[in-house]
Design goal:
The protein is an alpha/beta fold. The chain has eleven helices and eight strands. The protein starts with a strand and ends in a 9-residue tail after the last helix.
């Protein structure tokens, strides 16, 4: 059984519609796919219908932007009740922060000599509720400013670059508690990728576990073999679920093909068990895993 638990569609910053992503999952030989668009459940309904049609098992979720000790930490929330009021309120703040920083980023890029408009970015976003730097990157690619998204982030959009601007993000500890209370299972995405390595040591993960954290994403393209070995050891010490996934964004990310990293069946079943336990404890109607 092939299980990929972290992917993105056009409901955030992927390049495929939720339905196209389900078809791509089937064509890639996946049995189970997790849809984890940024800070939103907007793609769930379309993906659910498409998953049933093409015969793959869908696990709905989202990747939520959080901060821990000043560093960005991405939290994968699997099977939460998207109508849980505290979750709704916090996601609204995160999404407003995404949209609210767009004018500043465009102004900064224009001051740096890049010919770009806010409307060009919004045209790329379409009906996605999550406006992100990848949408700006796609405009830069289309205009020939950079060859791909990676170059756009390295030259223009990463921290300290001309187009970077801060935005609101939830506190990691608070969001772990909210996801758990919403009947979901919280997993740290790519914990030692990007800027989160310095704040996510074993002690920090243990502290988050007391608040409801159930797992860490170990097998990810941002982690080399040594990182994966150490993280797997930490997960074993803390009894955390170990997940693996592609972090697929369609053509928006190079070297993140569907199924390039996968989650084992036993860890997948543990993840579902945690979600079921949290849902029962919270007494909430949590989306069902399955197609």
């Amino acid at each position: 059984m092939l299980i990929d638990l972290h992917t993105h569609s056009r409901a955030s910053d992927g390049t495929q519609s939720p339905a196209e992503l389900m078809t791509a999952a089937r064509d890639a030989g996946l049995d189970v796919i997790g849809l984890t668009d940024h800070d939103s459940a907007a793609g769930w309904d379309e993906a659910t219908q498409a998953a049933r049609r093409v015969g793959v098992t869908l696990v709905v979720g989202m990747e939520i932007s959080t901060k821990l000790d000043g560093a960005g930490v991405h939290l994968l929330a699997y099977l939460p009740d998207p109508t849980y009021p505290p979750l709704v309120r916090e996601l609204a703040k995160v999404l407003a922060g995404r949209t609210g920083r767009l004018p500043a980023m465009i102004d900064q890029l224009r001051e740096a000599g890049v010919d770009i408009s806010e409307q060009e970015v919004l045209d790329r976003v379409g009906d996605s509720p999550a406006v992100g730097r990848p949408h700006i990157a796609d405009v830069l690619v289309a205009k020939g400013v950079v060859p791909d998204r990676t170059a756009a982030f390295e030259r223009w959009l990463g921290w300290g670059r001309p187009g970077y601007a801060t935005r609101y993000a939830s506190q990691t500890s608070a969001m772990v508690e909210i996801v758990t209370a919403a009947g979901g299972a919280a997993v740290i995405a790519h914990p030692w990728g990007r800027g989160s390595r310095r704040v996510l040591d074993e002690s920090a993960l243990a502290d988050l576990q007391t608040l409801g954290l159930v797992g860490i994403e170990v097998d990810h393209q941002d982690h080399d073999a040594a990182d994966r070995s150490t993280l797997r050891s930490i997960a074993g010490e803390l009894d955390l679920v170990v997940t693996g996934s592609s972090d697929h964004h369609g053509t928006g990310k190079v070297d993140h093909e569907l199924g390039c990293n996968t989650t084992s069946v036993d860890q997948y079943e543990l993840l579902l068990a945690h979600a079921a336990k949290h849902a029962a404890t919270a007494g909430r109607g949590t989306p069902l895993e399955g197609s």
